[in-house]
Amino acid sequence: MTAPQVLGRRERNMQLKHERIFAAAAELFAERGFAAATTQEVADRAGVAAGTVFRYAASKSELLLMIYNRMFREAIAEGVGSAARPMDAVDAVQSIVMAVFDASMASPENSAAYQRELLFGPASERYRAEGLAIVAEMEDTIATRLLAAAPEMDADSARLTAASVFAVLHLGIARSSTQAHPGRDARQDLHDQVHLILAGPASSKTQAGANQQQKGNQR
Amino acid sequence: MTAPQVLGRRERNMQLKHERIFAAAAELFAERGFAAATTQEVADRAGVAAGTVFRYAASKSELLLMIYNRMFREAIAEGVGSAARPMDAVDAVQSIVMAVFDASMASPENSAAYQRELLFGPASERYRAEGLAIVAEMEDTIATRLLAAAPEMDADSARLTAASVFAVLHLGIARSSTQAHPGRDARQDLHDQVHLILAGPASSKTQAGANQQQKGNQR
DNA sequence: CCTCGATAATGAGTACGCTCATTCTTGTGG
DNA sequence: CCACAAGAATGAGCGTACTCATTATCGAGG
Fold first, then answer.
1. CA quadruple A144, A149, A151, A155: dihedral sign
2. Which residues contact A84 (CB under 8 A, 6 or more apart)?
3. In this predicted model, what pLDDT tens digit does every residue of A72-109 receive, in sequence order?
4. Do B161 and A201 make contact, defined as CB atoms within 8 angstroms?
5. Contact indicator for A32, A78 with CB cutoff of 8 Å
6. b/e per residue A100-119 (b: at least 16 CB within 10 A)
7. CA–C1' B37–D11 (A)
8. pTM for this model (two decimals)
9. Which of A112, A132, A192 sits opposite B180 (nearest CB)?
10. Which UniProt keywords apply (chains A, B) (predicted)?
């Protein structure tokens, strides 16, 4: 259905191995967590030798990036989707941010590891570059949305504001795994932070107003 | 000979070893970078066995946290100090943020590693907890300063805004080591981001304008 | 079909962070 | 001064991510 099968056995096998390794890693990370899973286990489950894993991913982290880049992209798409209907720009950005955050909460520990590897890992690696490109796209989308709602704003401010929104999202995901602020509702805090960044302190009527809005009304 | 010697040889030796290990780690990380230095080298330079290092620091990361917590604290104090004279609240926060950022630029790679370990490391460790407390203090200081300038603002908004400022600083330090945005001036971007967060999009004229603004313009 | 160059796969080897059973040191009571 | 308990120091050993010389496999040309 896709391309004509000009693939020889060699390329075919490589493609299958790539898929098996990817799938094995995804399963193991989901079952036991990124930190606890070993590359040997990934190799075993994929039915390849230990060294073979590293012909398909430069590092263990790259396996995580491969897997979560997809999740990240899909969450953004979902958030953009629910922002499609006419909507206040702030709410549109919120729906993107909260979609990513909610997706992260499916496995907070692995998502935190993803954020860590994405932003602090070696830049040379392929899937990290891909992940950073997704971040850049997300920031672009947000900046564009802000500009559409406020054409008098200059482009650089919109871009920097979008970067700040991502920074807050990044730290929100990071802190959700390590219970740095145990008493707080991380989701609500993130929502309020984005609101404060986009609408400014002046526009927040009261804290109660920002804080008490219904949990379910985002999307 | 200095303090009253109530210490036995035992405690005295432990104290000296702690200092030697701390100093050896600081030197090695400065010379070769955190990632390249090994705990064996730290032990050798401190004149102790490999295992002894781990009686004084729970992990290699803890060595880094020990060292950079001090730098972080001092940078904040310096920033707070230069914000002591009467000053616009936005500028006061800027002086804190930029002091930390500038201090980080003395060794961007290690500072990025510090941010990584601080926010993503295991919470149980002693020096990480200490570092997080410094972050909390910094956010408190910023929140208090914002409230002083705008008493009508509610406390939670100030706190969340301060957290956003830290998030942007954190990511700024992270990106300064990995050249994620090569064409950009990271310092200027950080400055502008803080300005946008604190003063809101409406008040920003241009990038240059944000940089060159007068000190006296009240909010 | 056979040969042979290219390259994919292998798995023992390496480096390094960290552990822990053992050894050494210190302070104390007799 | 000696014996001994507490606990600090040691360093060989372990687990794991990653490497690389060697081996297995593929595909093209004869």
1. negative
2. none
3. 999 999 999 998 887 899 999 999 999 999 999 999 99
4. yes
5. no
6. bbebbeebbebbbbbbbbbb
7. 20
8. 0.91
9. A132
10. DNA-binding, Transcription, Transcription regulation
